[in-house]
Design brief:
This protein is α+β, with helices and mostly antiparallel strands. Helix content is 28%, strand content 37%.
């Protein structure tokens, strides 16, 4: 099972609803280490600012942003 795994790279390309993305992001954030990268696809379709603000509590910061992709990297 993946419950006890640590993830270094996660690509979010599934549901495009803020609450669903948030649920997945927090699940993976709890299983990440410093340097972990989260790539969010189609981020303009949901409220990325809420997701990003929440992930700051886990040490993630936006490190790159394009037209359809947003990269967050865990700093600590």
């Amino acid at each position: 099972e993946h419950r006890h795994s640590t993830f270094a790279l996660v690509h979010f390309d599934g549901p495009h609803m803020t609450k669903d993305v948030m649920t997945e992001a927090v699940w993976f954030a709890n299983r990440s280490a410093a340097g972990t990268r989260f790539v969010f696809d189609d981020y303009p379709k949901y409220n990325m600012s809420i997701v990003a603000k929440c992930l700051e509590l886990y040490g993630f910061l936006i490190t790159d942003k394009g037209e359809n992709k947003c990269l967050m990297t865990k700093q600590k």
